[in-house]
């Protein structure tokens, strides 16, 4: 498995997005044992980065469901899990009646971090990412709260998610140059709109973690990416690989700071995705695929 840098550590160039095992648009979930087996399959394939979040759960009253699956999978895996890097997120709320909201207050984030520590069964969270902006609060103040949790040793590194370039700049100013570990935004052939944030991260040595990198939305949409985006299917056919692998290989080729985190709820899905690290696209192929989704050089 090829490696890339995240929060000063080497991790697999392809990560596992664990969300679909606990929350997806189909509302079809694997059994607990099958979910654990999917994480084990990722680890067996050389994946050492797992992305989860406190809200990833089948219902509002099961918050932490996905974090607990990840923790159980790491505990029961037959290999050495000490090098596995787990990142989680907080800042989105779910309450009775499936009411969704956002809370970036210092008190809420502290409580969320403490719950995630318990769910994951760890003393410190390797990377804690602010999940989605709370527009009622000043973004810089939220970053200050996260910096405080880092200074206390509850989280080792801080990242942000669903952020604009301006918000990335604010996070850098508060955390200090070089201390913003990651930006996790939606990016795929279906949603290439975060290309500016991707390029900014490349210029400032920040890991960029595309969520839904295959163009799905939590409901298995990545399965037909080759039908929706013919250019990726054509490259896959020519190389004898899946269009999903071509999509991930293209994202990896855009910048060495990119670490896609494809979601999976079946072992076969993440096993296929992990093979994308072995595909070396030519510069012409990368440029053509980018143009096909509206990204210019």
Secondary structure topology:
Blueprint: E1 3-6, E2 9-12, E3 16-17, H1 32-44, E4 49-51, H2 65-76, E5 85-90, E6 92-95, E7 99-102, H3 106-120, E8 127-130, H4 139-151, E9 158-161, H5 165-175, E10 180-184, H6 195-203, E11 207-208, H7 225-228, H8 230-239, H9 243-254, H10 267-274, H11 283-292
Parallel strand pairs: 3-4, 4-5, 5-8, 8-9, 9-10, 10-11
Antiparallel strand pairs: 1-2, 6-7
Helix pairs in contact: 1-2, 1-10, 3-4, 4-5, 8-9
Low-pLDDT runs: none
List the strand order in the largest sheet. 3-4-5-8-9-10-11
Mean pLDDT: 96
Residue share in helix: 25-40%
- What is the helix tally? 11
Q: Work out the oligomeric state of the chains in this entry.
A: single chain
Helix/strand structural class: alpha/beta
- Main beta sheet, described? 7 strands, parallel
The shape, in one word, is globular
CA gyration radius, whole angstroms:
18 Å
């Amino acid at each position: 498995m090829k490696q890339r840098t995240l929060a000063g550590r080497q991790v697999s160039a392809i990560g596992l997005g664990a969300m679909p095992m606990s929350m997806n648009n189909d509302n079809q979930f694997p059994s607990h044992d099958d979910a654990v087996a999917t994480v084990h399959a990722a680890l067996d394939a050389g994946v050492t980065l797992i992305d989860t979040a406190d809200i990833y759960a089948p219902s509002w009253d099961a918050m932490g469901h996905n974090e607990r699956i990840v923790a159980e999978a790491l505990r029961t895996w037959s290999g050495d899990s000490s090098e596995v890097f787990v990142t989680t997120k907080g800042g989105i709320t779910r309450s009775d009646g499936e009411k969704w909201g956002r809370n970036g207050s210092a008190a809420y984030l502290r409580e969320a971090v403490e719950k995630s520590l318990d769910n994951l069964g760890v003393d410190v969270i390797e990377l804690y990412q602010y999940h989605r902006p709370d527009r009622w609060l000043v973004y810089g103040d939220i970053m200050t709260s996260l910096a405080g949790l880092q200074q206390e040793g509850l989280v080792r590194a801080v990242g942000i998610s669903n952020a604009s370039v301006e918000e990335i700049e604010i996070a850098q100013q508060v955390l200090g140059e070089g201390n913003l570990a990651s930006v996790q935004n939606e990016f795929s052939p279906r949603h290439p709109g975060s290309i500016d944030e991707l390029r900014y991260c490349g210029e400032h040595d920040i890991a960029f973690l595309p969520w839904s990198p295959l163009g799905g939305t939590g409901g298995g949409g990545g399965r037909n990416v080759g039908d929706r985006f013919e250019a990726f299917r054509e490259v896959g056919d020519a190389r004898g690989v899946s269009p999903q692998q071509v999509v991930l290989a293209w994202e990896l080729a855009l910048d060495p700071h990119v670490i896609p985190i494809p979601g999976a709820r079946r072992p076969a899905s993440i096993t296929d995705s992990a093979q994308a690290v072995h595909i070396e696209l030519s510069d012409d192929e990368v440029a053509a695929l980018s143009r096909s989704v509206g990204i210019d050089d």
